[in-house]
Design brief:
10% helix, mainly beta, binds zinc ion, 96 residues, three-stranded antiparallel beta sheet, globular, 5 strands, 38% strand, two-stranded antiparallel ribbon
Length: 96
């Protein structure tokens, strides 16, 4: 699971004790956000009929509160996983 959150939502985001017992791990990295330059930041809406909408998104919004996180300001990239740690994806969302 990958999310980008604003700093205030990220502060309250932690694993539940049951999730930890089930082997879930959490990685939180603060980054100056940017919209990925490769067009991969999209909203895809799927129904039983297939993909009905696949739109590039020009801004980053917090996945919890939906507030915009303006480019270059600090957001928190959150990754949750079990088993193998996922590869770095945060870099694509990090303003250089
Ligand atoms: Zn938020």
């Amino acid at each position: 699971m990958r999310r980008i959150l604003c700093s205030s939502c990220a502060n309250g985001f932690n694993l539940h004790p049951e999730d930890e017992r089930d082997g879930w791990k959490l990685r939180k990295i603060e980054i100056p956000v940017q919209v990925p330059t490769d067009g991969s930041h999209r909203i895809v809406i799927e129904t039983d009929q297939g993909v009905v909408s696949d739109t590039p998104v020009p801004i980053i919004v917090c996945d919890t509160c939906n507030d915009e996180i303006p480019e270059g300001t600090i957001g928190v990239a959150v990754t949750m996983w079990r088993g193998m740690e996922p590869d770095n994806w945060e870099d694509k969302y990090t303003k250089k």
